[in-house]
Specification:
The complex is a heterodimer.
Chain A: H1 18-44, H2 50-79, H3 86-96, H4 99-104, H5 106-111, H6 113-116, H7 122-125, H8 129-133, H9 140-171, H10 174-203, H11 215-240, H12 250-281, H13 284-293, H14 296-318, H15 320-324, H16 326-348, H17 351-354, H18 357-368, H19 374-378, H20 388-413, H21 426-430
Helix pairs in contact in A: 1-2, 1-20, 2-3, 2-9, 2-10, 2-11, 2-16, 2-20, 3-9, 9-10, 10-11, 11-12, 11-16, 12-14, 12-16, 14-16
Chain B: E1 2-4, H1 34-46, H2 52-78, H3 93-117, H4 127-148, H5 174-207, H6 211-220, H7 228-261, H8 273-299, H9 308-339, H10 342-353, H11 357-369, H12 377-381, H13 383-410, H14 425-448, H15 454-459, E2 472-474
Parallel strand pairs in B: 1-2
The chains are: A mainly alpha, B mainly alpha.
């Protein structure tokens, strides 16, 4: 069965053409230069590239979150039979295909595994009974196998959903959409599991002595929020370039803003649950995580996260007006993206000093004798990931990986339509009005 | 220009489950005029006699309710020693039943509220049901902590009032959080249920044939006349209450989870408990709405309003939530293994291979495996598969609470204190009686109140749709009531 196409207006509104190629090349150049400078800066610190690798890991996790959330957007769109989001789907499909460069981007992390993860050290893993019990999970071979098991379905899903969507642009068969809907169910569950496991493997295992059940879900919550900040920004940029002027309306922005708000709430919900229960039970193997982040300069980052990722945007995004005014929404999208990155920075970067012999000594000290004065024993160690050079490396890694992924996204968008032209839900999406 | 739209007529039993990407799904079948919707819903309340099956069910429910009263009375006069609670299983059936009913209670409102916020039009067929299950389930839930305190006449001590005893509630206790959270939730969910019902109560009032019915429905319809202003206020109130209820559901089920999670006992102290309890609550809610909707649509002739698509969607959502619950079960095992901690590992090994192994595997089967049948359309569309599956899910959720409460407690850190738990006949009678209370209230609701939100169903009829461009729509001979 074929669906007749509708009159959408001038072609230029729906294709990026040269603009995509230009942006793609520029982003590629920025990405390569930024990564190269970050690597040089990391090398000059004479710390076996630890600062660079941690900065790289943080940026990688940040972009993994955006890419995974883009796939989440596509899958949930099909699973829940959404129509309002049809005009945004193609952008999310292109963003979701960044799993391929992200898989390639794993190479530095795998090469630097010994610098990043303490569980790669046999001596460390045999230092306690509990750590020894974890050897079945935390070992290099199994880690590598898990990475492969994560990325094969992720890449397959993202490629499949984009390819079928593009084929439908050509032949207009509704059977394509039905096929996408059919596979969205298991794909959705698989994606959910994989994001959780990535959170456990890449972030939670940085601190093998730490025990919590909610960390994988906490990573998931933080990650999924990002697509609802990226899509409005991308849509606004396209509209500034004269594309999708009438296709994406204030009502679409309003709904994206609502989802952004909802996921932000989910993040604080999981974060608060985890923090409160750990605080209440006060078990050393759990509180360790927060003690490290409640000392010295890290306390301010913790508070900044609480206010910046929740309290301030809660009031900022609450009103209908904030979600319907493009400028204001753009501000909150950028704001929340910055804090989504800071969230990962807060989770990952303290390990730069914790996972060192000096850091271990300081932690052993607080565990047994002086739990409330970690700052005294850790001293200047906690400042290491916050030095100006370290921050510069982190920013350059964000620019570097971001540039490369943006280049890839625009490379994919250079020839294809910016909306799924023959999706039967397109007319409804174009005419979408918010009545709630 | 006025455009006349003739609503298509879909016969009763029409298969509206097909995934048609070109058209909006049909959500009401039969001769779906405005009058017909009113007639179909109101006739249940207006009929002089209910179906015979209703009387049979009501008699059984009343008998169970009487049993509940007898069990509570016996416990109050004799003391809490009549239960099977022991040391170390200090929390037995009362807390299991409390958490079970709270789970059911949390789901109904959430289903209705969250589907409203997500603009899911099919909710109109089942939302009243779901909200009613909330109100009745919370009534059942409230009984258990009330009797579990042993001396319920001192429950006012929970309130922070000035007193000469120098006694003040412990605000750091999750049990007090429970009282506050559940109290707030009862208020909001009852308001949400009742507010949504006001226009429909007015319809029953206007159609009442006896003075007494007219007076009673008139009082509860709060002078509703259906003016534009009233509708405006009604719509706003509904949205605000839906938003409040959604937040409350997350908050309250999470609060209930803290009763366990703030402790240091493996199997209880898990930072994933708040979302776990929320997912479990919604899951059991979908299952109970599914289990009630399947017979109710047959019994009360509502197959055109609670269509096959509604059942299909409910089954799909049960599958989704069941998969979330399965995620938590498996994550518990993964993290316990990952922890390397002998106590954490033991707690989960004991769950599956200890003396209550059949319950450990039972919850995996009922809540994890059984919902997976809903991947298949055949299972979603065949009542003798869908209904037992939904009932198994409900049973599974009760067993899950048993596993959390009893199995985690009966073997704690000190092997010398290990002790098995066995419920007494008072425990079992009270549990059975709570079902009596729930079904008595539910059957009364079905008999005397509008089971389906008529005013909301009318808004999703094809003839109610306003096409883009603001064209007027009307169907000859069909005026909104």
């Amino acid at each position: 069965m074929e669906h007749s196409s509708i009159n959408l207006g001038p072609r230029e509104e729906f294709y990026l053409d040269q603009a995509a190629s230009r942006t793609s090349k520029m982003a590629l150049a920025i990405g390569l230069v930024a990564l190269a400078v970050a690597a040089v800066l990391g090398f000059t610190r004479h710390d076996s590239m630890r600062q660079f690798l941690f900065g790289y890991l943080t940026a990688w996790c940040f972009y993994f979150g955006i890419t995974a959330s883009a796939l989440f957007f596509v899958l949930s769109h099909h699973l829940f039979r959404s129509t309002w989001s049809v005009v945004l789907r193609r952008l999310a499909e292109a963003l979701a295909c960044n799993f391929i460069p992200l898989a390639i981007g794993l190479i530095p992390i795998l090469l630097g595994l010994h610098q990043i993860y303490p569980w790669t050290s046999a001596a460390y893993m045999h230092s306690t009974v509990e750590l020894r019990n974890k050897l079945g999970i935390l070992n290099e071979k199994f880690f590598l196998i898990r990475c492969i098991l994560y990325f094969i379905p992720l890449i397959a899903l993202s490629l499949y959903f984009r390819r079928v969507s593009l084929v439908q642009d050509q032949d207009g068969h509704v059977s394509r959409l039905l096929a996408l809907r059919k596979h969205s169910g298991w794909g959705f569950l698989a994606l959910f599991w994989i994001i959780n496991f990535v959170g456990a493997d890449f972030i939670m295992s940085l601190q093998p002595k730490w025990l919590t059940y909610a960390e994988p879900l906490f990573f998931f919550a933080g990650a999924i929020m990002t697509i609802y900040a990226v899509l409005p920004l991308l849509a606004m940029w396209l509209q500034q370039k004269g594309r999708l002027q009438n296709a994406i309306t204030v009502d679409h922005y309003h709904d994206l803003g609502r989802w952004l708000f909802a996921w932000m709430m989910f993040w604080i919900y999981i974060g608060f649950a985890q923090y409160m229960l750990i605080w209440y039970a006060n078990i050393p193997k759990e509180t360790l995580f927060f003690l490290i982040r409640d000392m010295g300069p890290w306390l301010w980052i913790t508070l900044a996260l609480l206010f910046g990722h929740f309290v301030i945007p809660f009031f900022g995004l609450f009103s209908r007006r904030a979600k319907r005014r493009k400028g204001l929404l753009a501000f909150w999208c950028v704001w929340l993206l910055v804090f989504a990155y800071l969230d990962l920075f807060w989770q990952i970067m303290p390990m730069v000093w914790v996972n060192t012999p000096a850091g271990e000594r300081a932690l052993n000290h607080i565990n047994h004798f002086d739990p409330y004065h970690l700052e005294r024993s850790a001293g200047a160690l906690a400042w290491i990931p916050l030095s100006p050079e370290a921050i510069a490396v982190n920013i350059l890694c964000v620019l570097g990986i971001g540039g490369l992924l943006l280049a890839h996204t625009f490379y994919l968008l250079r020839k294809e339509s910016l909306v799924p032209l023959k999706d039967p839900g397109l007319p409804e999406s174009l005419a979408f009005e918010d009545h709630v | 220009m006025t455009t006349a739209i003739t609503a298509p007529i879909y016969e009763t039993g029409f298969d509206n489950t097909a995934d048609d990407v070109l058209r909006q799904p049909v959500l009401v079948t039969g001769h779906a005029t405005y009058q017909e919707v009113t007639r179909k819903v109101c006739r249940v309340a207006e009929a002089p006699r209910a179906p015979r099956a209703w009387y049979v069910c009501f008699a059984i429910s009343l008998a169970l309710l009487a049993l509940l009263m007898a069990m509570i009375g016996y416990e109050l006069f004799t003391g809490v020693g009549v239960w099977g609670n022991n040391s170390p299983v200090d929390w037995g059936f009362p807390i299991i039943n409390f958490v079970f009913w709270v789970g059911i209670a949390h789901a109904g409102t959430l289903i209705s509220a969250i589907l409203l916020l997500f603009r899911q039009k099919w909710r109109t067929g089942i939302n009243r049901f779901a909200e009613a299950t909330t109100v009745f389930a919370v009534a059942c839930a409230g009984i258990f902590p009330a009797i579990h305190v042993g001396r319920p006449w001192f429950e006012y001590w929970l309130a922070p009032y000035p007193n000469i005893m120098g006694d003040w509630p412990n605000f750091l206790s999750p049990l007090l959080w429970d009282a506050c959270a559940v109290g707030t939730y009862v208020t909001v969910s009852t308001l949400f249920w009742y507010t949504g019902m006001v226009p429909d109560l007015a319809s029953l009032r206007d159609r009442a044939t006896s003075r007494i019915k007219h007076t009673i429905y008139g009082i509860f319809s709060l002078g509703w006349r259906g003016s534009a202003r009233q509708w405006h206020i009604y719509e706003r109130a509904n949205i605000i209450l839906a938003a409040l209820a959604t937040a409350l559901v997350l908050g309250v089920s999470s609060t209930v989870s803290t009763d366990f999670a703030v402790s240091q006992i493996p199997g209880w102290h898990e930072t994933i408990f708040p979302p776990y309890f929320t997912a479990g609550a919604i899951f059991s809610g979908f299952a109970i709405v599914l289990a009630l909707a399947i017979p109710a649509r047959e019994l009360f002739g509502l197959k055109d309003l609670i269509t096959r698509r509604h059942i299909d969607n409910l089954a799909k959502l049960t599958l989704l939530l069941g998969s979330m619950v399965l995620y938590v079960y498996l994550m518990e095992f993964v993290i316990a293994w990952y922890s390397g901690n002998m106590y954490e590992r033991f707690a989960y090994l004991n769950r599956e291979f200890g003396p209550y192994w059949w319950l450990g595997w039972g919850i995996l089967f009922c809540n994890g495996v059984v919902p997976q049948v809903f991947w298949f359309k055949f299972a979603r569309q065949t009542w003798w598969l869908a209904w037992p599956a939904a009932v198994l899910c409900i049973m599974g959720m009760w067993m899950e609470r048993f596993v959390i409460v009893v199995v985690s407690l009966h073997r704690d850190f000190l092997p010398s204190s290990w002790h098995m738990f066995a419920p007494t006949w008072i425990d079992i009678g009270t549990l059975a009686g709570s079902f009596g209370l729930f079904f008595t209230l539910f059957l009364l609701f079905c008999r005397y109140l509008p089971m389906v939100a008529m005013s909301e169903v009318k808004a999703i009829l094809p003839q109610a749709a306003v096409p883009h461009g603001g064209g007027q729509t009307a169907r000859s001979g069909a005026k909104p009531e």
